[in-house]
Amino acid sequence: xxxxxxxxxxxxTNDYEGPIIGFIQHLQKTKGLIIRTTSMSTYVKGExxxxxxxxxxxxxxxxxxxxxxSLVIKVINRDLPVEQGFLEF
Length: 89
Hints:
CATH topology: Alpha-Beta Plaits
Number of strands: 4
Low-confidence stretches: none
Shape: globular
Mean pLDDT: 92
Strand order of the largest sheet: 2-3-1-4
Largest sheet: 4 strands, antiparallel
Number of domains: 1
Number of helices: 2
Strand content: 25-35%
CATH architecture: 2-Layer Sandwich
Distance between the termini: 26 Å
Oligomer: single chain
CATH class: Alpha Beta
Order of helices and strands: EHEEHE
Helix content: 25-40%
Radius of gyration: 13 Å
């Protein structure tokens, strides 16, 4: 199953930028994923098992830093054209 995931990581610390950047950089290392980052969230597209495995590994890295975080995820089971920007209806 191909999925498009929109997610936002919220480290519950004053120094939040480093963990967010590290999380995204880990996702970018995974071959077979399409990653698009905006100022508010990150989109990940790819085969579902690969997407979720990569997210899990990235979360483990954040957890190993001893940080408490909140990860908000929206998933659609389609190839959503997020590269095209905003959709007009």
